[in-house]
Amino acid sequence: MTPLPPALLLLGPTASGKTHLALELADKLPLDIISVDSAQVFCDMDIGTAKPDAATLARHPHALIDLISPEQRYSAARFREQALAEMASITARGRVPLLVGGTMLYFKALVDGLADLPEADPRLRAEIDRDAAVRGWPALHADLAALDAATAARLAPFDAQRIQRALELLRLTGQPLAELFAAQTQQPPPYRLLSLALTPSDRSILHQRIERRFAAMLAQGLVEEVEELRRRYQLEASLPAMRCVGYRQVWEMLEGELPAERLLERGVFATRQLAKRQLTWMRKMADARSIDPLSADASERSLELVKVFLGT
């Protein structure tokens, strides 16, 4: 039998140093980068998504960024299809795919496949959004907890996108998510995988990094970026693009729902909550090799693990 070609997965919470490490690895090994980021797929959303700059992309192009407008929607199923196509192209060129990001659902979709779930129902989603506008997302989170306690326990009360999808699936199928996923048939990709999970040993240092990064985004013009997006596109708060961490808080400020002096605080809090959810996902990935990005030898250890895996 022909051995499966290799592919690398590099995942971690926001602000853990994924991009920096990916670029270091790609400078030393024949790796081509594929983004695994549900926010970087949107065009013209650069500052708040920490999208690599033009010089970085010239040196190491990233696949699967700048794919759609902020008015559009993207899915885990579409990611899996496009990621597998990019991986095949990279392998055909004699190089190794390096998938980098923090959207854990996309990593799971790639590695395990997807459950056969109903497609989005625009009418039902609009109905749920109207209910949320009247009662608030925490009230809908409570509704979800009464019907699917396990799913509600994994979601924050203001995680509008995931609460909406869970309620939508419940109404469409009558089944909680655990039952729907239990029927899933695993569809592993045709690759031999090495997963590196950046897991900071000191959560307080990660929190400091998050605060510094969000403050830097504001200094770089995140508010002005959102203002320009609102001028160029037909946007509303319920769109996935405007639910991204950082963009949601700026939107609320521009709508007068959040005092400007609290924008940094709310943005940092939301980003920390995102990091917490990412770390929770990562703990379930039994095959991932943990790397402490705060350690002095993180780059060297990662490089050595990859070299051994590739046999170089």
What does this protein structure show overall?
This protein has 312 residues and is α/β, with parallel strands linked by helices. The protein has 2 domains: 236 residues, P-loop containing nucleotide triphosphate hydrolases (Rossmann fold); 61 residues, Histone, subunit A, CATH 1.10.20. Strands 3-2-4-1-5-6 form a 6-stranded parallel sheet, sandwiched between helices. Helix 2 links the parallel strand 2 and strand 3. Helix 3 crosses helix 4 and helix 10 crosses helix 14. The longest helix is centred in the last third of the chain and has 21 residues. The protein is globular and about 60 Å long. The relative contact order is 0.18.
Question: Topology, pairings included?
Answer:
Elements: E1 6-11, H1 18-28, E2 31-36, H2 54-59, E3 62-63, H3 76-92, E4 96-101, H4 104-112, H5 122-135, H6 137-147, H7 149-154, H8 160-173, H9 177-182, E5 192-198, H10 203-220, H11 222-232, H12 240-243, H13 247-254, H14 263-283, E6 289-291, H15 298-310
Helix pairs in contact: 3-4, 5-6, 5-8, 6-8, 10-14, 11-13
User: What number is the mean pLDDT?
Assistant: 94
- Radius of gyration, in angstroms, nearest whole number: 20 Å
Query: What top-tier CATH class of the largest domain fits best?
Result: Alpha Beta
Taken together, the total number of domains comes to 2
Order of helices and strands: EHEHEHEHHHHHHEHHHHHEH
* CATH homology superfamily of the largest domain: P-loop containing nucleotide triphosphate hydrolases
Shape: globular
- CATH topology type of the largest domain: Rossmann fold
Helix content, binned percent: 40-55%
The count of β-strands is: 6
The appropriate CATH architecture of the largest domain is 3-Layer(aba) Sandwich
Separation of the first and last Cα atoms: 22 Å
Low-confidence stretches: none
Beta fraction of the residues? 5-15%
- In terms of quaternary structure, the protein is single chain
Structural class: alpha/beta
Q: Please tally the helical runs, counting DSSP H or I stretches of 4 or more residues.
A: 15
The largest pleated sheet is described as: 6 strands, parallel
> Within the largest sheet, what's the order of strands?
3-2-4-1-5-6
